[in-house]
Structure to design on (289 residues):
């Protein structure tokens, strides 16, 4: 398969995109699970969670009937945090035991949490567009109960929830810069990545355009240890430097929804792309793992 284009110093010229599993209907929410040396991801429309083993190369069903989970990330304690479209909440999976983190905002249900990150202080930041209540097969039909689509922060000390980004139409993937002082958020409706200054670790200011993948459809994003922003897109992954200039791309054969680093060395980039789980070896890592 394809090699990376223009990513000297980030991906070796010999590294190739490799298909690992092809049985999803809408693959999202990739997360490397160190304890089991496996890559777990959501098959949103298939309403199940799949897991690919590094050691055996085999894919297995982790759970069925999962209420259309979407984005996923490791918490600081190694447990797994994930977004549930069907139950309109953020939840924790600790070896199969599910705990609700947040499911409401000022008395109303959330829309359908899509993706999430954990800040260095342990706060959970998540996006809440309405795709899980409006797109057939991605959740259950429903109404917006606070009439908008925002980004929220869950305080690690008391679970208090605050709205931190309220100026986007379809907030989706999100990631912090290396120093945690900038938050990048994808707006799927405007097909852009927006940047914000993070103030005191609790609020966002100075909303501004950061970048936009040339062929559109940004969804999940990650930041590498040099501060570059890796975005999913219609044709694979596009990488931007911290100024927003495009560095290069990794062509993937299917529309790519999300990505994460993992593998035993942390240098393997996994990409969830429609029906497929793909990987390519890189020479960088996630800024925060
Ligand atoms: Mg997403």
């Amino acid at each position: 398969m394809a090699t990376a284009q223009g990513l000297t110093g980030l991906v070796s010229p010999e590294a190739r995109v490799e298909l690992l599993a092809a049985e999803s209907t809408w693959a999202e929410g990739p997360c490397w699970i160190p304890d089991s040396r496996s890559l777990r991801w959501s098959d949103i429309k298939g309403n199940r969670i799949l897991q690919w083993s590094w050691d055996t190369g085999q894919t297995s069903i982790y759970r069925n009937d999962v209420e259309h989970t979407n984005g996923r990330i490791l918490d600081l304690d190694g447990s797994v945090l994930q977004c549930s479209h069907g139950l309109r909440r953020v939840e924790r999976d600790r070896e199969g035991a599910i705990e609700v983190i947040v499911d409401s905002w000022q008395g109303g249900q959330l829309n359908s949490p899509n993706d999430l990150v954990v800040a260095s202080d342990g706060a959970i930041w998540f996006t809440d567009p309405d795709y899980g209540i409006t797109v057939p097969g991605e959740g259950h039909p429903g109404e917006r109960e606070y009439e908008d689509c925002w980004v929220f922060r869950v305080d690690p000390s008391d679970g208090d929830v605050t709205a931190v980004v309220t100026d986007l139409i379809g907030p989706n993937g999100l990631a912090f810069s290396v120093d945690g002082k900038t938050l990048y958020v994808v707006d799927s409706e405007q097909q852009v990545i927006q940047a914000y200054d993070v103030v005191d670790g609790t609020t966002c200011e100075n909303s501004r355009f950061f970048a936009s993948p040339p062929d559109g459809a940004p969804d999940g994003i990650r930041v590498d240890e040099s501060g570059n922003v890796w975005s999913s897109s219609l044709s694979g992954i596009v990488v931007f430097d911290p100024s927003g200039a495009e560095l290069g791309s990794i062509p993937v054969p299917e529309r790519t929804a999300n990505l994460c680093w993992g593998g035993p060395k942390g240098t393997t980039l996994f990409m969830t792309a429609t029906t497929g789980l793909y990987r390519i070896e890189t020479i960088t890592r996630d800024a925060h793992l």
